[in-house]
Amino acid sequence: MENDQPRIVLHADDDIDDREVLQSTIAELDPEAAVVSTTNGQEAIEKLLMLQSEGLLPCLIILDMNMPILDGRETLEEVRRFKNFDNIPVVIFTTSPRQRYADLALKYEVDIITKPSLASEIKETVQQLLTYCR
User: Fold this and answer.
1) In this structure, is residue 2 part of a structural domain?
2) Per-residue confidence (pLDDT) for residue 2, from 0 to 100
3) Which of 2, 73, 86, 90 is 20–30 Å from 106 (CA)?
4) Does 44 map to a domain?
5) What does the pLDDT average to over 52-62?
């Protein structure tokens, strides 16, 4: 990613607490990064296309799996239909067991990261997510 382009993280999650925790932790760990949050997969696709029209692409897309309208699987499938987005890393960020989405991760070459259940693990997990933007 070019140094003059802002680091943008696109985050789709219908849980407001999860969105706020991720956004505030990213702001604390990497103040230069901007988080674009959406509440479902359809909004994520719309934001992605809007960013592209502005000449911006996120350095990372984080998808919750259980969302209304378009869930994480459907959103990932839609994102991967666009060749322009092939090089954007996508992470499935879920509370579900990793093996539940192993087939999806393998098919689309995405990683699965389990949402931390302990507050003490949040920074470490978000730091791991931010490594995709470097």
Assistant:
1) no
2) 44
3) 2
4) yes
5) 95
CB-count exposure of residue 83 (10 Å: 0-12, 13-18, 19+): exposed
Q: Which CATH number do you get for residue 104?
A: 3.40.50.2300
Burial per residue of 109-128, b for 16 or more beta-carbon CB atoms within 10 angstroms, e otherwise? ebebbebeeeeeebeebbee
> What are 92-112's pLDDT values in tens digits?
998 877 677 788 888 988 999
Domain with 87, as residue range(s), is 8-133
- Whether residue 3 is contained in a domain is answered as no
Q: What are phi and psi of 52, to 5 degrees?
A: -60, -40
What's the order of all strands across the beta sheet hosting 60-63?
34-38, 8-12, 60-63, 90-94, 111-114
> Would residue 1 count as lying in a domain?
no
CA distance 62 to 29: 17
